[in-house]
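Technical appendix A lists one of the benchmark inputs used to test multi-chain prediction within the project. The record comprises two sequence entries:
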Amino acid sequence: MNENQALILALRDRRYTHSLPRVLPILFGAGFTVAVCLAAGLLLIRALRVQFDRAEQVLFGFVAGAASVSTVVCGLCAAQLVGRGILLAVGLALIAAAVRWRPRSGVIRKSLPKSKCIYFVVLGSLFLLYFFIALAPEVSPDGSGYHLGNVRRIAEQGGFVWDYHSIYSAFPQGLEMLFLVAYVFGGMPAAAMVHLTFLCALAGLLIAYGRRFEWPRAGMFAAVLVFASPVVGLVGSSAYNDVALATCIYAVFYSCEVKSQEESGRLLILIGLLAGYCFAIKYTGWIALPFAMWRTKRLLPSSAAIFGPWILRNWLWIGNPAAPFLNKWFPNWLYTPDLEASYLADLRHIEGFRHWWEVPLDLTLYGAKLPGFLGPVFLLSPIALLALRYEIGRKLLLASLIFALPFAFNPGARFLIPGLPFLAFAMAIAMQNSPAVLPLLAVFHGALALPRVMPLYCADFAWRIREVPVRVEVEPYIRRYVPGYPLKELIEGNVPKQQKIFSLSTRPEAYIDHRIMVGYESTEGMAIQRGADPRHYGVQFLLLDDNDPKDNWRNLQLTAVDKRNGTTLYRID
Amino acid sequence: MVAILAVAVWLCLRPITAAEAVLWNDLVRPPLRTAFFAPDAWSGWIYALVAKRTVGLLRLSEFSLRLPALLAGIAWLALTPKRPYYAIVPLLLGWFTTAEGYGLSLALCAAAWRSRSAAPWLLGLAIAVTPWFAVVLLVVFAVTRGISSLERIGIPALVTAFVLLILPLSHAAMPAHSKLGSGEEFAIRNGVQPLRGRAVEILAPPETVPLLEFYKARYRQRNWQIESNLLDRGQSGGFQPLPDAETIRYRFTK
């Protein structure tokens, strides 16, 4: 068998990341979801008669459509109606309607700078890298944990899983609703592809903003700066939600700026939908709502249409509209104020820094003590202060500060992503008049984001893209990056399907068929962790690491069933 | 001018200093890939890159290691537009006759002064050769030329230096300053010269080891075994100096 024959066989074999039977459903799932969002958004823009150019129509169409589709899917989940048939029918109807009634645009903007080829080459090269990362199996900690864990449970159940109690299922799941559509047709990588689309949309919005407001070179540079940031690339090509949040926040800012140019009441509806969707994607996105109200000096009732369902769901289900937070004001069965305080303290906790100046170095260069890093070029961010000379620079820097605030409560580089586009744009404005600097830095930043270059400056164990999985075997790839993956065999071989398992730490739920109750994720879990009999909560098995304390269950008769990678499965006799 | 040049050449022949020996040992001798990521590369890798060429052409010697600085001095003289500046040459002779980046940076600044179009890049290179220049140059630009000049020259220079330095800087450590004076440096050269052609084992204080390694390579003495006189005392607290650690000891092995 020669190499070509082997490659053809590999293309047909689902064991490989690049095999056609594996890739086609993924591309269909992601493409269908994106197309449905775009269709819904274009219809909305037509209905609102907002004056956008072609590129803006597509970009705002996708983001606004995502908000609308997400809300519709949320409704389907609540009604337990999620299924391939209904999703396909609704989606095809929307696409057909958008083809029939797509909006027209006569607006023509300033052309892009001559150096655009350089920027597009950098963007295109990195897009290919991210594309293959997204196409590979999901291996990110939270992606293979609760983000897609929730999606998988919802897809299996056909709607929200009311009897699964975890703080992570109480978070608003605006983006997971889109992941769900993609997952139903294409599996987990399709969800990551949808998130990657948001990253591309963010780059597009930065370029379009630059064109519209007469800073085309700055827009192109800012797009590269954000797109090539290592943490943005990794998060954007995984099933997380931070990049989608950043995209929507930037869209809110952008539309507020458009609103300040053109007095249009209909634009307020769009701004409201986008701001509401920021909240629906992630709680930290709530800042977009007061920001938009401050900038437009109006209340934005349309936002309630998007975030309202999530608040209502939590209120009716848990008794706390802001679950799993504000438990002091809304006492409920899921979480107590003590647990909430301890959870928040854990998020805030960082260690290992001896001097304050180690923090920016770690955030940009090393990624050793805080998860992820932004890329060394962001060490030049003080240059952005020169942008304060311009009104747009002041607006961007203020927005960057406002949207980076959640970092104070959860210091990981990805919590800076929502503020990053604004900072990148301000840096670009500050350096725009310096000859050749923007293309030089763009190429340098792009090169520093390559998986082979990153180890030259970051910490060995930094959270980053480590390889380009173009032709790799699926199973070994997952095992390499998901430490808990071997537990799948352990559990599925030894635990009956309906049995619940208790664990002290999170596991890759998205890969495991069984329901796992994690100690700190609910009051029930915490009760077991503190020594309550797990059987009272329907738990028959414990999953404990070698270094986990076991004294609390001294009274129980535990039988070790099997062990993988330092984790033992115990049966309660 | 001839007298100045003669003095400069004579100064270039004096014994190697501890800092120069470290530069040679860490940055000039190893392959570029290793040298680029050495802890002290950020403060000298560009000078070392030029010195690699001069040492390769002329064989290793005090003069060949310092030749880039001397050439930079000559370039500076040629590029400096006004004769009165020559009066400060004696003050700068130290920079132009030591294997450090200051002379090179000064010459690049002079070149930047002459060529306005390439000024940002030459200034950036000057900053990259001697990062301490960054602070001085930025303050000078901000104060004297205002924002527009900062955009036209200051930022491109800073960005050029950043691109050249950020990778070595990511592995940086502050260089340790040697306590050795010129007296000790002369004494070491005088001391090792009689050992040429002999097989010896040399036990020396750690800060003199780079100098001895330099002379070992300079005189091509492969049969010299140089070791730091540190003794691993294991559990009693890591490395400890031997008694009488200030002296260099040697014994003939054949």
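The beta strands of chain A are 500-503, 516-518, 539-545, 558-564, 567-572. Chain A has two domains: 17-317+350-482, 484-572. Comparable benchmark entries are summarised in Table A2.
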